[in-house]
């Protein structure tokens, strides 16, 4: 008995399934040209099935048996054929008419009034479909009414609304592939962007800034100016001199020069592609601007077939002055050490005599050879403060002192501490060093103490 019930239910479901395929939901107007099936907008389609799961209609051309799928948003709601024909007539004035957006953030509103609710914000260069014109409230800019009219529009994501046409560039789609038209439209928009005074002012402001590697800003923030890495020649230049031309034509050669990257790119224009996104026309260089004050730049370029990025920061500080101040600080510290002696003596590790703040004579250091000081070294030493110590070491040490022995290619680093009774040195030749900062002590370091004499 149960088997008969099962067969009965199965048969009923199959009958229901096939009968649903035979039913029609009605007729709809295609609102966005479909390149896959080469059907232009404005075409009336027969609608068979609606799938909310797949978000598609199953449709066919009237008189054609072949069915295909179309996204829900591309069609009007299915209705009788006579009503669909009336809809088609309503859209006829703007048949095949699309628009490219000229202003980033341009709103689509719920009604044809500039104070109505925003339902969508458009991106510059985005393409939308224009459906028909509407009677709406005038739009003003503080000086008077703006030129344009309210248009009923549709986005490629399926959002409907009203948009004022002042910042839209309307064009006729000549084929079924609107994406191709979009590409052509963006080329036309490039010409308009070059004339957009707002964009030109923003780009000119970017050119006027001094752009340096991100590491410079980090050094300034923590107060550790590594003069081996803070090179005034490092940075990015647009290759445009605003002092000679306050209104440049945005043509030049962009140059990037950092510790780890470099390159030059001739270009004929700087074009805004999206909000804070720019391209250098005629090159493969792209620029993204970040930060509340637009003081962070991310450059993207190709190198040996690979995409690379470099982050730069706009700085107001004078780099040469920062370096001069850091050199002066180091000299002051070396004078402090030298004047505390100038002779420091150890019974095991010899005598260190400061001839001046930059010159030392070190004698009788054989116990440090060759583990710390090379056998080739001569006691004539140049002294520098090339590195810094991390905050975790500041309670125990004053800094890092480097001894450059005659006869040695590389200097010998010591953590140092000047005390009331002398100078304490600790071997830092194997201490971890990152970005010019000794971050920790060496494992089992040798500690040397020299008394004042």
Automatic annotation (TrEMBL):
<protein>
    <recommendedName>
        <fullName>Lipoprotein</fullName>
    </recommendedName>
</protein>
């Amino acid at each position: 008995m149960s088997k008969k019930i099962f067969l009965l239910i199965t048969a009923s479901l199959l009958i229901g399934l096939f009968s649903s395929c035979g039913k029609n939901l009605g007729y709809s107007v295609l609102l966005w040209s479909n390149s896959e099936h080469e059907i232009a907008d404005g075409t009336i389609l027969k609608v068979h099935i609606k799938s909310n799961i797949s978000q598609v209609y199953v449709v066919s051309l009237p008189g054609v048996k072949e069915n295909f799928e179309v996204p829900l948003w591309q069609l009007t709601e299915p209705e009788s054929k006579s009503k669909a024909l009336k809809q088609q007539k309503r859209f006829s004035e703007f048949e095949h008419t699309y628009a490219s957006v000229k202003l980033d953030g341009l709103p689509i509103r719920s009604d044809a009034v500039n104070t109505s609710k925003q339902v969508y914000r458009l991106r510059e260069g985005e393409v939308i479909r224009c459906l028909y014109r509407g009677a709406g409230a005038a739009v003003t800019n503080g000086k008077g009414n703006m030129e344009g009219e309210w248009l009923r529009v549709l986005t490629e994501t399926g959002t409907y609304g009203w948009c004022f046409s002042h910042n839209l560039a309307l064009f006729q789609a000549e084929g079924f592939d609107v994406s191709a038209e979009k590409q052509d439209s963006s080329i036309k928009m490039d010409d308009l962007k070059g004339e957009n005074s707002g964009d030109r002012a923003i780009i000119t402001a970017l050119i006027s800034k001094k752009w340096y590697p991100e590491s410079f800003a980090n050094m300034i923030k923590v107060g550790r100016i590594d003069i081996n890495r803070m090179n005034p020649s490092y940075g990015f230049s647009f290759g445009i001199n605003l002092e000679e031309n306050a209104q440049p034509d945005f043509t030049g050669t962009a140059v990037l020069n950092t510790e780890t990257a470099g390159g030059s790119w001739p270009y004929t224009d700087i074009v805004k592609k999206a909000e804070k996104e720019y391209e250098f026309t005629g090159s493969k260089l792209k620029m993204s601007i970040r930060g509340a004050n637009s003081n962070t730049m991310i450059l993207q370029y190709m190198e040996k077939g690979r995409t690379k990025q470099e982050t730069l920061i706009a700085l107001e500080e004078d780099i040469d002055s920062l370096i001069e101040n850091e050199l002066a600080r180091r000299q002051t510290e070396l004078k402090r050490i030298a004047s505390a002696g100038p002779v420091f003596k150890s019974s095991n590790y010899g005598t260190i005599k400061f001839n001046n703040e930059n010159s030392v004579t070190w004698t009788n250091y054989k116990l440090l050879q060759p583990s710390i000081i090379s056998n080739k070294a001569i006691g004539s030493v140049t002294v520098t403060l090339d590195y810094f110590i991390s905050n975790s070491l500041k309670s125990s040490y004053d800094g890092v002192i480097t001894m450059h022995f005659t006869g040695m290619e590389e200097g010998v680093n010591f953590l140092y501490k000047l005390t009331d009774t002398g100078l304490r040195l600790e071997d830092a030749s194997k201490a971890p060093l990152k970005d010019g900062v000794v971050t920790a002590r060496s494992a089992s370091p040798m500690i040397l103490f020299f008394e004042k004499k």
